[in-house]
Amino acid sequence: MILQGKRTWVYPKPPVIIATGTVVGPDEGQGPLASEFDLVHPDLEIGQPSWEKSERALLEQASDIALQHAKLSKDKLNFFVGGDLMNQIISNSFAARTLGAPYIGVFGACSTSMESLAIASLIVSSGAGEYVMAGTCSHNCTAEKQFRYPTEYGSQKPPTAQYTVTGAGTSIVAREGQGPVITAATIGKIMDLGIKDPFNMGAAMAPAAVDTIQGHLQDTGREPGYYDLIVTGDLAGVGHPIASEMLRRNGVQMDQTKFLDCGLMIYDVENQKVQAGGSGCACSAVVTYGHLLKRIHKGELRRILVVATGALLSPLSYQQGETIPCVAHAVAIEASNSEKQGDAAP
Amino acid sequence: MILQGKRTWVYPKPPVIIATGTVVGPDEGQGPLASEFDLVHPDLEIGQPSWEKSERALLEQASDIALQHAKLSKDKLNFFVGGDLMNQIISNSFAARTLGAPYIGVFGACSTSMESLAIASLIVSSGAGEYVMAGTCSHNCTAEKQFRYPTEYGSQKPPTAQYTVTGAGTSIVAREGQGPVITAATIGKIMDLGIKDPFNMGAAMAPAAVDTIQGHLQDTGREPGYYDLIVTGDLAGVGHPIASEMLRRNGVQMDQTKFLDCGLMIYDVENQKVQAGGSGCACSAVVTYGHLLKRIHKGELRRILVVATGALLSPLSYQQGETIPCVAHAVAIEASNSEKQGDAAP
């Protein structure tokens, strides 16, 4: 039985992340993690005639890079699991057309990174696939255009807003191979405490992160200290302190130096004009696949829990006065024995 | 190993569909399958102040009905797997908030019905969940408003267009219990033969249905005659004959009396004003869960393959001149031994 507790999958034979691909745009290329990504574009256009095509190109490039890293031809992929913020997840559907792999479209807004990884891991772990790619992407200009205003308008934002990451992150999950392993995943419930402001999604998503972290610890019987790091997806400068405070009040003892947020890590939030920090499907994807897995490889981290958060609103739902339902999906990634000995492939 | 061939899951211990819920609107209530649905609404409003809330209500009702049929309280559900046509699949996300179950959002346009059922079955079959609900919904007025024009405008359509089904279908998949079983699923690849016309989605989707049917037969080594019926999702009057012809040219011997289409079954296409026939996420969901499973229960059918088709366009993608990528996911449903003996619960 893979199911442990109410909603956590503990994979009996942990699938391996044999390769990843990360591609980002210029703002991320000026952030503190710039050197960790496989490809940094100097501009937002990426040689494409529309922002939507730029976003798709990011994902296609990240897919190609992961396949190159894995030394795998794309016809070996059993499935591609992915989604994004665009209406009808067109970036992933069009990239899946290019890739040619059987396609499982998913949607969890910015939690899509870990939702797709959890499902890919379930497929591999259960013997339903040998090589499965999980991927997601976002682009600052497509997200602003669709959810708020085209960036060309130059409209202002409050400091609680977040800055959508331009990038794409993919991983290839396999039954065998070298790399960190996925030991568990916890699927989120919808949490909605009544926040309606799309410029304050960190606050809206914080309860979902807290609920999933507590659910994961309860289902697995683990203490927070089991993990070297617990990293939320993109709560950023407003949401992450709220999550910390909620966990404290709920009696969950977290070492604050081991509780980080991808939205705060990807930018120099003080000096880059990113309001409260990063967000977007690519945020937790590129920070996890680019930065955190490298730290596992270097032996700096052995066990991490990535808790990707998603705000499941649509422009229509908030125009109609609805509150913002949120979700968070968590995936536990651990160093494999080979990496613990420091002899894994890069 | 669940994986058979390239992209087909053959479930070692076939999960059981222990209950379903189907809710439809007035047009479907005037169609030939009206008596097969659990709840028929006499109007499109369903007591709600917006079309989006009406669509969500359909799904919430179909979820409640399935739980009642299964005599299961909602806290027993391990996961809810669902998606819909709305931007950011808001109908499912909001319904998942009401349901309270851990939520896996998926998107395959009108193929979502079988995508969600395939994933729910994988979860149950692999021991990653005991009770998993799969669900989807669509509403004629939300889909027209979002993809084309609000119905209030009264804009005309060509006869190749399809009519979005107003309805919702849910199923509860379990490890044990009485009901038909899910023996296999084949995940679709993106097929895109260059059609750009959103008023002719049947033609666009036909190659995806053909590819998945052939992939399924190849992976499983089965002949079309293994199934009492092979039913496409919603190719309707234009797409279904194209699929038949493509299969014939590819040398797949199909008995045309056993090759049907949900979009042609749900309406009296000749006499109801539905252009080429039905479409929408709910189309294959309510026809499968309402009508086809009842025929299995009655002993009229023993093995069916439901091939739900999806056109993965967005309004933006076709406005930008893109072609329509399409996908089809197939699920094989068979009578259980108890049903073969005619003693299953209704």
UniProtKB/TrEMBL annotation, chains A, B:
Q: What is the lineage of its organism?
A: Bacteria, Bacillati, Bacillota, Bacilli, Bacillales
Molecular-function annotations in GO: acyltransferase activity
**Biological source species:** Cohnella cholangitidis
Designated name of the protein: Stage V sporulation protein AD
Show the stretches that span the lipid bilayer.
none
Name the source's superkingdom: Bacteria
Q: Which SUPFAM superfamilies match?
A: Thiolase-like (SSF53901)
Gene3D superfamilies referenced in this protein's UniProt entry, alphabetically: Stage V sporulation protein AD (3.40.47.40)
